[in-house]
Specification:
The complex is a heterodimer of chains A (321) and B (324). Chain A is α/β, with parallel strands linked by helices and 321 residues long. Chain A has a single domain (2-91, 171-319), classed as Rossmann fold (3-Layer(aba) Sandwich). Chain A contains 9 helices and 12 strands. Chain A starts with a strand and ends in a 10-residue tail after the last strand. Chain B is of the alpha/beta class. Chain B has a single domain (2-96, 174-323), classed as P-loop containing nucleotide triphosphate hydrolases (Rossmann fold), CATH 3.40.50.300. In chain B, helix 3 crosses helix 4 and helix 4 (122-135) crosses helix 6. Chain B is globular and about 70 Å long. The two termini of chain B are 29 Å apart. Classes of the chains: A alpha/beta (321), B alpha/beta (324). At the A-B interface, helix 6, helix 7, helix 8 and helix 9 of A face helix 6, helix 7, helix 8 and helix 10 of B. Bound molecules: adenosine-5'-triphosphate (2 copies) and magnesium ion (2 copies). One magnesium ion binds next to helix 1 of chain A.
């Protein structure tokens, strides 16, 4: 049974340069206790997508449409009040990009973890603090951390605090936006191990957002590659790493430096397009080494490669089944 | 080109009102980089990489030890005598968001060092800027010259930073890459570019990074830092493929490689936190996190770098015996 289904989601911003099409018709789905990776370079729309799901939107929204179905119910129909009460943080919670730097410096971290629960007003302070302590332990921090302030913690410890706070109301889905990109590889590995454990033990679904496709293989059962506001390829981890179909995904994988192989990592020349005026046809065509006749004229639809595996590339037209 | 001799850098940091604590950020490092070569400095956050980089540029004055630039001992030189050194040695801070003035256009950003060092007339400077932008492939240069930082992608901003550092034709460059927000493709692109320019101008490079996997392709030697000391140094193929120090082995196990079966197993990690550089014990600094069978020395003495294989040096008592 699907926990989450997103259909043709759009989020456009107004800007002085024109409409920024940050999320441009994204569809995806996620089952219970599954982890979905959203991978894409800077500016591809990863954070915008998650903000649209959480309905935490800036004021300069131009367009916000599409369906978000959670447990069979279209939550885009809910009023803001209902959404806050039933969905945000209770059912879907999030670790925001760079949030560990926005911990309140004058509040004890234990209190900050408990805060969403205190706002709920269904439990008393003592219970909320108890839960906060338990969560600290779960994320591998000693209980004493409860009484510490943010500046007394290392980056890795702060990120654990943010993860604890996202878990306090037992959500069904946690969105993690670049949770490790400000951490070094050793601490990153510790956080990833923690997330893996949670996924297994708590039956939580996760959306894991990252610019690092290699890292996504550490957690994700499924992967969606985002390019200029569109999902250009998605599939299971095995499909995406084993037989990627879209040239962008292939090149992205070839750019990862391997410890074992000797070939030096490749890169994708050129820059991503301006989202106020996305290119005609395929959005990747100008950087694509395999472009041919239709690429700059007709936008490719999502061709089905096999079950669960879709690729938005004219080269895959023949593969359609 | 660059040589450090038993360099130490201790910071005094206030704790509370009256107490100060001494932070041993660098505690006895000797290393050298040959002309035209690249040394990569890897290691976890807080191990002292940036501090070491700043010491080689004399942006910091060491507490003890000596720093040489070619044959010049720059350890105690006054700022006035450092003038020519300042031109010949440059830094690139790879954080494309904070290291560039948002109100200057690309031309002004790249031209500024020439103005600071009073080099050339306006017309010659324009020519040099044009050349530098071409070198980093920000072409057509006319078009990029007039752009402001917010109009550039992350990778393009980094190239502006490189052009700015290269315009003075330095012989030595420190590139300090903080934990990075850039994707693998942009990083590979920048490093390919750097490599070409380095070969073209025979530049000596200190490449500071967390990313031991990219270091493998772009460095002639890799030095692994732990808690203010170099624990292993050698050619990349040795350090990455046949690591010897237990810390290097753990660090390599933490590097993510794309493999869908990763999600079914936990990654190898170095358990625990690194020791506080303000509170260093006597023995080997990795001792508290080391999982090998220890001996007495580990707790009581500091291991020094010992050559274990040709060109491959390691600071570990337990590995000394494996010398070949
Ligand atoms: N409030 C806003 N108003 C206008 N444009 C915006 C706003 N927020 C984001 N954008 C633009 O929308 C695009 C997508 O941004 P988004 O933050 O979603 O990207 P991202 O994939 O999360 O990038 P990163 O990896 O750098 O975090 C970018 O071009 C960005 O400049
Ligand atoms: N000016 C300073 N005063 C006091 N302590 C300092 C100062 N500069 C650095 N330190 C300390 O010295 C140690 C080494 O810091 P350094 O910035 O060199 O580490 P790093 O290896 O570059 O880390 P990162 O990978 O996070 O950039 C740290 O414990 C740091 O807190
Ligand atoms: Mg983002
Ligand atoms: Mg640093």
């Amino acid at each position: 049974m699907k926990l989450l289904e997103v259909k043709n989601l759009k989020l456009y911003y107004q800007s002085t340069r024109g409409t920024v099409k940050a999320v441009d018709g994204i569809s995806l789905d996620l089952a219970k206790s599954e982890a979905l990776g959203i991978v894409g370079e800077s500016g591809s729309g990863k954070t915008s997508l998650s903000l649209a799901l959480m309905r935490v939107l800036p004021s300069n929204i131009d367009t916000n449409e599409g369906k978000v179905i959670l447990d069979g119910k279209d939550i885009t129909q809910l009023s803001e009040e209902e959404f806050r009460k039933e969905i945000r943080w209770n059912t879907i919670s999030m670790v925001f990009q760079g949030a560990m730097n926005s911990l309140n410096p004058v509040l004890k971290v234990g209190h900050q973890i408990a805060e969403p629960m205190l706002l709920e007003k269904t439990v008393n302070k003592k219970e909320a603090y108890k839960k906060s302590e338990d969560l600290l332990e779960m994320v591998g921090l000693p209980k004493e951390i409860f009484n510490r302030y943010a500046h007394e913690l290392s980056g890795g410890m702060k990120q654990r605090v943010m993860i604890a706070s996202a878990l306090i109301l037992n959500p069904k889905l946690v969105i993690l936006d670049e949770p490790t990109s400000a951490l070094d590889v050793s601490i990153q590995a510790q956080i990833m191990n923690l997330l893996k454990r949670f996924k297994k033990e708590l039956d939580i679904s996760m959306i894991f957002i990252t610019h690092d496709i290699a890292l996504s293989s550490d957690l994700c059962d499924k992967l969606a590659v985002l390019y200029a506001g569109e999902i250009i390829e998605k599939g299971t981890a095995e499909q995406m790493f084993g037989k990627p179909k879209h040239p962008y995904t292939q090149l992205l994988l070839a750019s990862i430096p391997g410890l074992k192989q000797d070939a030096s990592p490749k890169f994708i020349p050129g820059a991503p397009p301006d989202l106020t005026s996305p290119p005609t046809g395929c959005r990747f065509h100008a950087r694509c080494p395999y472009r041919f006749d239709p690429c700059d004229k007709k936008p490719p639809p999502a061709f089905k490669i096999e079950k669960d595996h879709l690729s938005r590339c004219w080269l895959n037209e023949g593969d359609k089944k | 080109m660059i040589r450090l001799e038993d360099v130490k850098m201790y910071f005094q940091s206030r704790k509370g009102l009256f107490k100060t604590v001494e932070i041993k950020a660098i505690d006895g490092v000797s290393v050298e980089i040959d002309k035209g070569k690249t040394l990569a400095l890897v290691g976890e956050s807080g191990s002292g990489k940036t501090t070491l980089g700043r010491l080689t540029l004399r942006l910091l004055k060491p507490t003890a030890g000596h720093v040489f630039f070619e044959d010049l001992n720059i350890t105690d030189l006054e700022e006035v005598h450092l003038k020519s050194f300042r031109r010949r040695a440059q830094a690139i801070f790879q954080d494309p968001y904070s290291s560039i003035d948002p109100f200057m256009n690309v031309h002004q950003i790249v031209e500024e060092p020439l103005i600071i060092h009073r080099i050339g007339k306006k017309k010659e400077r324009n020519e040099m800027v044009h050349k530098a932008l071409e070198d980093v492939r920000l072409t057509p240069t006319q078009e990029f010259s007039n752009k402001y930082p917010h109009m550039l992608s992350g990778g393009q901003r980094q190239r502006v930073g490189i052009a700015r550092a290269l315009i003075l034709k330095p012989e030595y460059i420190v590139t300090d890459e903080p934990v990075s927000m850039i994707d693998a493709s942009s990083r590979a692109e920048i490093l390919h570019l750097m490599k070409n320019l380095q070969d073209k101008y025979r530049i000596t490079v200190l490449y500071i990074t967390h990313d031991i996997a990219t270091a493998k392709y772009f460095a002639d030697r890799i030095a692994v830092m732990y808690n203010g000391r170099i624990v292993e140094i050698g050619p990349p193929e040795k350090v990455v493929k046949e690591p010897i120090h237990p810390y290097t082995i753990k660090l390599l196990a933490a590097v993510p490689e794309p493999d869908p079966s990763n999600r079914f197993k936990e990654r190898g990690v170095v358990e625990g936190e690194p020791p506080n550089p303000a509170d260093i014990q006597w023995g080997c600094r990795f001792e508290s996190r080391c999982q090998l069978q220890k001996e007495d020395n580990c707790k009581s003495k500091q291991p020094t770098l010992v050559q274990i294989k040709p060109e491959h040096y390691v600071a570990c008592f337990l590995k000394d015996k494996d010398k070949s």
